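Thread: D-malate complex, take 2
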Amino acid sequence: ADKFPHMKRNSAFKKLSDEDIAYFRTILAPSGITQDKEDLQVFNSDWLRKYRGQSKLVLKPASTEQVSKILRYCHDNKLAVVPQGGNTGLVGGGVPVFDEIVVSMANMNSVRSFDKVSGALVCDAGSILEVLDKYLEERGYIMPLDLGAKGSCHIGGNVSTNAGGLRLLRYGSLHGTVLGLEVVLPDGTILDNLSTLRKDNTGYDLKQLFIGSEGTLGIVTGVSILAPKRSKAINVALLGLNTFDQVQSAFKRSKDELCEILSAFEFWDQAAIKLVKEHLVAGANDPLESEHRFYVLIETSGSNKEHDDEKLNQYLEGLLTDDVVQDGVVAQDATQIQKLWAIREGIPEACSKAGAVYKYDISMPVPVLYQAVEDMQDYLTKNGAFGEGKLFSSVIGYGHVGDGNLHLNVAASDYSPEAVDLMEPYVFEWTAKHAGSISAEHGLGVSKNNHLHYSKSPSMIHLMKRFKSLIDPQGIMNPYKYLPDN
Ligand code: FAD
Ligand code: MLT
Ligand code: ZN
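Output below.
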């Protein structure tokens, strides 16, 4: 296949025939079937333009029953399937490798119910995150997760990747906020677990297995999630700092001094702001007078504006007095809040515009977080591969300090095996040596599956493989991904 030179199609999978298409036509509306070559392109390539598959068929079911019929047929006929949400994934998990059938969840996008007392929202898996958040905003609630891709990603995709994002510090991971799931298993069985209960200790918590399983165990069709109340008072501040020690110091103090109102603590470096400025990401403007080595975005969310303002101002004054930060601004209204967030949320897009970008999404203890960026830069320089006219043009660091999650991005002129061979396994060995995870929140897909052993023991990987063959004995669900090839 085009971008997967080292991989071979599994010949055990059946090739799509006219007979198969004729069957799908009996269960789906004409608009639910895409075969047009041009229309297929967007489903075959990923957000980073790094991976490209060769699927000849996209199915867009409109109900759980239709998903069930599709999977039962694929299971019986050994047709490989790739579930696809908003196709914003960053590890190549949502696009086919060869000719797998894409099952797009885009036509399943309704809210099924909302409980105004508990905040339990039940919706179709194809609902767009931002649309759900708007729905909740009108009712005084908020989605417990937020990410730069909110305008396109689906809640089913978020659940399947166990997406972290910008609010995890405050509301925790989806393993805690998801109350229940409806999942169609590979053989077509509908697993109805759309509970809205906060407490339920009856049996194995099966939904947890599907959270973060990246479409390898079935298709998530419905999600029940606990939405918190939307905070009435939001503040956002942008700080400029000289060292990563200062970033850490500001973080420690934010936990002490802002405590319960702290809702985000994000950072980025100078290389990131340079790219944002260079590529003029819409709405992103650096309001600080001079450029800094480090930037921190702090958000507070509370219920009493005066109280929050006072706390934040005291905290910021303390940082300035003690020379922890060199400069800072506080957004004065909702538009300014959005503008500050636009800088942070624009970084992935800015990085992607630089040409090719290698994304390492690693977690580790906060004290060594930025060392990863510096060490990578030194390592590439020593190998003569970094700088003008070289293979790599910049090493960029940003991420979720509050979660110990660094986004180590390396910009290059093109995607090439040479570039990969230089950085891998170097970066994974570095991460394992520092007690980190090689994938903090983006998942494994095709880009990290064979490196799983850096973060999980052989016995854990063995058990994962047993789960996979128990639930998907034909191996039709999202093949070639997630678990190691051997
Ligand atoms: P897709 O990309 O379509 O699919 C992702 C994986 O889930 C694939 O393996 C696919 O097969 C599977 N899948 C999708 N839907 C289903 C389903 N219904 N049932 C079973 N399997 C399914 N991620 C973070 O964690 N934090 C961030 O802050 C963050 N920010 C981002 C910002 C930008 C600008 C971009 C482009 C991406 C960002 N991401 C982030 C990565 C990505 O958006 C998330 O992983 C997101 O959760 C993927 O959702 P999706 O609907 O686009 O899924
Ligand atoms: C983010 O935090 O911006 C996302 O995880 C996307 C990325 O890493 O580029
Ligand atoms: Zn992130």
